[in-house]
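Task 17 of the worksheet. Students: predict the tertiary structure of the chain below and write it out as structure tokens. Keep your answer in the requested format; marks are given for formatting as well as content.
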Amino acid sequence: MRRGALRPGRMSALRSLLGLGLLVAGSRLPRTGAQADACRAGRPWWAPPRRTSGGRGDPEAMAGAAVRQEEARAVDQELFGEYRFSVEQLMELAGLSCATAVAKAYPPSSLSRSPPAVLVVCGPGNNGGDGLVCARHLRLFGYRPTVYYPKRPDKPFFTALVTQCQKMDIPFLGEMPAEPVLIDELYELVVDAIFGFSFKGDIREPFRSILDVLSGLTVPIASIDIPSGWDVEKGNPGGIQPDLLISLTAPKKSATHFTGRYHYLGGRFLPPALEKKYQLNLPPYPDTECVHRLQ
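Model answer:
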């Protein structure tokens, strides 16, 4: 994507967004060599020893330590059933984990704008709810989130999440910027909270067009649990390629195809007996942290 001067049509679109007070002055600073080195970590905790000095290990062997879609569903069903957790409880913990991972990967002091502008794109299900909670906590962490939430469930809980964001002066976009360059100019990071691990079937509008736009971004994308548009187990090399992946509860099989710089485990709420039952073998969280960096 070229980052040169905008054409008249693009400039008009930018002026429209400016009228809504959504443009933050300033430009992104280039990443320093030290920052880039700090982002490179060893192999993921769930990867086998590498056969050579290069590459990312054997994807099939790595997949043996991550959960399949059916296993992830079964864990959720037990959390909500036998363990009597509520959706609201787990969503709050998950969204906080996501915001914490974002703050660790892209601390406000490392970004050029103050406060840093973040676009949170939310889908119609629980993954979108995680995104709304994430946006609220990002606001408390010193970011300036904006939410795009095109398909809102008609449920009191999700309506309450929207109200909470609005009461914290988090704006909601009426429409998605139509071109990647517009998002690149307006925001320093995009949080993908569109589809979670339970999604199946064809991607319909408006989300197909949204993912097309996200695929053309140059700013980093942070995906919650699953990069939207990916097969939960097989990934999607032609889809969006996030720079940050926050795996909730446990990494899913598709995480073996993740090539970004940051991978965090979040959602520190799994009972030890349930972890043992499904042989998840998760790494221990450090101290009182709610996230754990996997790579």
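Marker's comment: The first strand starts at residue 117 and ends at 122. Residues 87-105 form the longest helix (19 residues).
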